Amino acid sequence: MTDNKVPVEKRERAQELHDILQRANYQYYVLDAPELPDVEYDRRIRELQELEAEYPELVSPDSPTQRVGAAPLTEFAEVRHQVPMLSLDNAFDDDELREFDRRVRDRLNSPDAVEYACEPKLDGIAISLLYRDGVLERAATRGDGTTGEDITQNVRTIGSVPLRLREKDVPQVLEVRGEIYMPKAGFAELNEKARKDGEKIFVNPRNAAAGSLRQLDSRVTAQRPLELCAYGVGQVEGAELPERHTEVLKQLNRWGFRINKEMLVAEDIDACIEYHRQLGEKREGLPYDIDGIVFKVNSIPLQRRLGFVARAPRWAMAYKFPAQEEMTELLDVEFQVGRTGAVTPVARLKPVFVGGVTVSNATLHNRDEIKRLGVKIGDTVVVRRAGDVIPQVVSVVESKRRADARDIVFPDHCPVCGSPVESTPGEAVARCSGGLICSAQRKQAIKHFASRKAMDVDGLGDKLVDQLVDEGLLHSVSGLFHLTKEQVAGLERMGEKSAQNLLDALERSKDTTLPKFLYALGIREVGEATARNLARHFGDLGPLMQASEEDLQEVEDVGPVVAHFVAEFFQQTHAQEEIEALRQAGVHWFPEETGGEAQPLAGQTWVLTGKLETLSRSEGKDYLQRLGAKVAGSVSANTDMVVAGPGAGSKLNKARELDISVMDEDQFLDFLRENGVEI
Ligand SMILES: NC(=O)c1ccc[n+]([C@@H]2O[C@H](COP(=O)([O-])OP(=O)(O)OC[C@H]3O[C@@H](n4cnc5c(N)ncnc54)[C@H](O)[C@@H]3O)[C@@H](O)[C@H]2O)c1
Ligand SMILES: [Zn+2]
């Protein structure tokens, strides 16, 4: 074939893709600040690969399809990898994975199924760790696959990187390869702190890990919650390693490396597809981000026979999960007013499928965040939706900024009631100063009051509260208990029966507990735990309402800020009147037992898994907390006990693995009774 067979527009497009991808590589690998979301990058790579497949003349050694990563920065010393550190090819659906299996078997001339190792694909940074005579000598990034950066000082600060191998019998030279990543919880904490301190915010855990590792001051790295997971070896001298990949990893584990607990051996490609499906369901619940599954031919001799192409081995494939970040257009910004008057900017987006759902709104947090992002209306933005977390605008694709992009103007006056919007110095949040004059705040206060963890009024949904307030039937929380059947039945989509149900639910809700009532009042910074501590300390509402800020600070976990909000709340005449009105309407509770009486589970952490048959998860949690226990959401090594119900499978296994005591539902109920909890 000759050059002139390639149509000009195809050649130009290829060149354009080269430019886009090279720029993206630089931003991603060198600056740790990608502008494009990964899916967008992957689409462009795909497009270039397809062009190159059609017109092989377009393939050049410097094509982004032929290369791994990017050449390293100059601040760190360069390291040459004896065995190149490659990337992985990607599959995006079952067919592409089957196609991979077909290619493997064709090449091996194997009519039989090939065994694969299945590992979650951690989303972090590839690392090479060189051990000489069992001692960590050097840690290097992948770089462009041949040349990486020496980041030994930084990597040494990571707890899960062994500085010395366990066991005596170790190879003279052992190069371990793995991923350094930041667990989700650590990432959330880091960003939250950065947001408060006005420091750099990372787009996702991968970027945070990359940025943390490439610090010139290793004391900074030491502060970051990084972990290592080993997934392979490079150079090995003076030892024979097992002939199956999964066995090699188990050996690494004995030498002191963490390996992934979800790892599995699949006997054929169908089992791989099933594994991918299962992990896809588990993905949100894992404590770290994964962006797919890596399937590797498990036999090392077969891996050797298969070899590799320019940028990836032929014996491995990454089967990606649906993206958690996508690009879309910011159409407009609206300002919502919350229960405490906080004015939150909400981005209206051109609908985009991300993280498994179609997203058309995302939070922009506050005024500072808008400034930090430098975002304008009309911009192309990157939206991230991971798990249950509210979708967020994480960055702006500046290269796509339109000439007519408009600044976002933060309102001076509440968009709902027109009262001035005020900000307290040192606080990022701006608030409507209208208090309960503001119907937005009133609606939110009533919704909160009626919510499940508060007064738990069955059937009083958000829409109904909006209707009641908008129709002028409801002006305060206590007004709920004066609603009449006729008023409720007269609303749109309501009838006699549903009206009666609501009144019955309201009646039932009057029988409550002091902690729930305190939480329901919606005092700023008073969540469930604080409400419980306040109730336990003061025993009843009277003494609490009289308490000074100083008195309040004696309560467990109550600092000056919370003490101030609580005292301020109870000093308002309006609040006092509301409380009186609620009691007049029949809201009641029994006083709490006060004092530092022994709490059977004080200081222990419990995990509630799945749904118990007779208790809801939140009830179980309430009961445990009454006994002084902290309740955790997932199973970790420092958890003491797990309460298991139907559907608790994976957590249960994890608990057993960690040697944590496990109880079933009946034992749990007995246990609560023994400890004097009425069920
Ligand atoms: N947004 C951007 O502008 C931009 C630019 C460049 C690259 N990228 C993204 O980076 C990725 C491509 O980069 P890449 O070459 O690092 O490939 P990759 O991240 O898709 O796959 C290779 C990497 O997977 C990691 N990995 C995790 N678990 C593993 C396991 N169990 N076994 C083996 N490896 C494992 C290793 O670090 C390895 O280097 C793509 O997802 C692409 O979207 C994005
Ligand atoms: Zn208002």
Instruction: Give the name of the CATH superfamily of the largest domain.
Output: DNA ligase/mRNA capping enzyme
Poorly predicted runs are: none
- Provide the gyration radius in Å: 29 Å
Ligand names: nicotinamide-adenine-dinucleotide, zinc ion
> What structural category do the secondary elements indicate?
alpha+beta
**Strand order, largest beta sheet:** 2-11-10-3-9
Report the sheet-strand fraction: 15-25%
Separation, N- and C-terminal Cα atoms: 81 Å
Give a count of the beta strands, DSSP E runs of length 2 or more. 22
Task: Briefly note the CATH topology name of the largest domain.
Answer: D-amino Acid Aminotransferase, Chain A, domain 1
The best one-word shape is globular
| Main sheet attributes: strand count, strand direction, barrel closure | 5 strands, mixed
Q: What is the quaternary state of this protein?
A: single chain
**Count of individual helical segments:** 24
Domain tally: 6
CATH architecture of the largest domain: 2-Layer Sandwich
Active site: 121
Catalytic activity: NAD(+) + (deoxyribonucleotide)n-3'-hydroxyl + 5'-phospho-(deoxyribonucleotide)m = (deoxyribonucleotide)n+m + AMP + beta-nicotinamide D-nucleotide
Binding site for Zn(2+): 414, 417, 438
GO biological process, one term: DNA replication
What are the main properties of this structure?
679 residues; alpha+beta; Helix Hairpins; OB fold (Dihydrolipoamide Acetyltransferase, E2P); 6 domains; five-stranded mixed sheet; five-stranded antiparallel sheet; 22 strands; binds nicotinamide-adenine-dinucleotide; binds zinc ion
